[in-house]
Specification:
single chain; four-stranded mixed sheet; 2 domains; alpha+beta
């Protein structure tokens, strides 16, 4: 009986392995933020001393954006861990790697780069 079971398992082993690989691939494709370290929550990436970031931060403060839109703020120029996350988000969004910079807002699915795009995004959320 055990021999028949082992022979049957050997017959189905390639199918089981294939299904396992498909499952792992699906997890990577459909849940990339869990696998690749990209944050699921909205995040504003800024640089300490960045004038464009200051414009965005002033807009957020002057319009009480944080009361209507939940997001984290991560400084990337002096915090290496935040810089790593920022680079992953930048790459995930397919933005030009030679034009990388802050401010960058990640809403969990889409990137908004530069003070105009970000303030326009927040303005649309305030309506």
């Amino acid at each position: 009986m055990k021999i028949i079971y082992i022979l049957t398992m050997k017959k189905y082993l390639p199918y089981i392995l294939t299904l396992g690989l498909i499952a792992v691939g699906a997890i990577i494709v459909f849940f990339p933020s869990k696998v690749s370290g990209i944050p699921k929550q909205a995040t504003l990436f800024v640089g300490q001393g960045c004038p464009h970031c200051k414009v965005v931060e002033d807009f957020i403060a002057n319009n009480d954006v944080a009361k209507k839109v939940a997001f984290d703020i991560k400084e990337v120029w002096y915090n290496q861990d935040n810089a790593v996350v920022f680079n992953k988000v930048w790459q995930n969004c397919g933005l030009n790697p030679t034009n990388i910079g802050v401010p960058l807002y990640w809403d969990g699915t889409t990137c908004y780069s530069g003070e105009m795009e970000i303030t326009n995004y927040f303005q649309s959320k305030l309506k």
